[in-house]
TrEMBL record:
Protein's name according to its UniProt entry: Optic atrophy 3 protein
GO cellular component: mitochondrion
Coiled coil stretches, renumbered: 99-143
BP GO annotations: regulation of lipid metabolic process
Short name of any one Pfam family annotated for the protein: OPA3
Domain of life: Eukaryota
Length: 168
């Protein structure tokens, strides 16, 4: 019951994070100080992706990489920020689900250990009780031999064990 609710909640958070990312992109595009930072970020990202593309198709990377114009840089950076925000929200949701799963598994393991301890204790108790019952049976057999009641035991189909003391 809890798992579907958590999955639904994480899906809700991911869905809500997209409009938040859009608002973040719009605010980032118009804030002057932040605009300068994101333009630098976009230019660096552009250089990185261009180098990777050139290496991928086998061209040299020694050629100059032309920077993006300011508007394209702002657009690329805000898109990157939006995607990073959505990705980080999804990643945090996954980390939360994994940690919750690990905690649930640890709780199950603890319950299994407790159940095993109860079984071991029950086994020890039963072993002690069996030992006590064997001692009592031995005592009853000795008393029966002393009172010469072994015929009663033989009558029921039980062969009386003989001990060294009863032979003498």
């Amino acid at each position: 019951m809890v798992l579907p609710v958590i999955k639904l909640g994480s899906l809700f958070v991911r869905t809500v994070s997209k409009p938040i990312a859009k608002q973040l992109k719009q605010a980032a595009a118009f804030h002057p100080k932040f605009r300068g930072i994101i333009i630098d970020l976009a230019q660096g990202y552009h250089r990185l992706t261009t180098v990777i593309r050139r290496l991928n198709i086998g061209h040299s990377i020694g050629n100059e990489i032309r920077p993006l114009n300011e508007e394209r840089a702002v657009e690329a950076a805000t898109d990157l920020l939006g995607e990073l925000f959505v990705f980080s929200v999804a990643g945090l949701a996954i980390v939360y689900e994994v940690q919750r799963s690990v905690r649930a598994e640890a709780k199950k393991e603890e319950l299994r250990k407790q159940e095993l301890e109860k079984m071991k204790q029950r086994n020890e108790d039963l072993s002690a009780e069996l030992k006590l019952l064997k001692q009592k049976l031995e005592l009853v057999e000795q008393l029966a031999r002393q009172r010469n009641m072994y015929r009663l035991w033989n009558w029921r189909g039980y062969a009386m064990p003989t001990t060294e003391k009863s032979k003498s």
